[in-house]
Design goal:
Blueprint: H1 5-12, E1 18-20, E2 23-26, E3 34-35, E4 56-60, E5 69-73, E6 104-107, H2 109-116, E7 118-121, E8 126-129, H3 136-147, E9 156-161, H4 189-197, H5 200-211, E10 215-220, H6 248-258
Parallel strand pairs: 6-9, 9-10
Antiparallel strand pairs: 1-2, 2-3, 4-5, 7-8
Amino acid sequence: MDRLLPCTIVLLLFINTVKTDGCHKRKFKEDSFVCVCNELECDSFEPVTNPPKGLIYSYVSDRDEHRFHKDTLDPKTLVNTVTADSIKLSINVNETYQQIIGFGGAFTDAAGININVCKFENHFHFYFTYVKSLPDKLVLDLIRDYFGKDGLEYNMGRVTIGGADFSTRPYTYQDDYQDLNWTHFALVEEDLVYKVNYYAIPYIKLANDFSGGLKLFGSMWSPPAWMKYQQRINGTGILIGDPGEAYYKPMASYMVNYS
């Protein structure tokens, strides 16, 4: 039981907060505050709608007081030296540019671990105990706040191909064999056990339910170290050679294998 105390203490800290403007405020050592959810109450973000004709909505977050504080404003009251008749806004609906697919976040190892597990360290190694750090209701509130209609309405998610800077270790899917045909390509324990059962896949499904149609894409943080000039995964580095040479087409095949 002693090993569960770090998780329990974190949850108890949620109690002592000050609520203003729908937000349970808590300050850490920084010069601003965060809004904290607990099992009884969690602030939400109402769906964005069109304002009444002639008015605009203003959303303000600042250092000292507000988080997404909504005001309804009349543009005529916002200018002192310009008359309303002299303000002209021209929009050419026939001239278009890039299309925005959406906004989103990454389903990383670190995100899942922080929601799901307590990590303990002794003098020799790290080890994980898979006990949820958050109650089920707070997990739902967390995913809803990002992907739900009364949240930020994210509609995209990034899944890392191999390890990333938010993993507990650097890894790819073929670290030990310098084979450009990828005959030894294989998912690792993080994928087969932890992501499937404890974090990425369950939370991707929840996010899809809240968003009503989640778009996913995979991105690779680093090729295997043996394909890079620096011969290491961490840090900056590029593929050996130039585009079109020996390593570039196999690198594309590596990503196809993951999909």
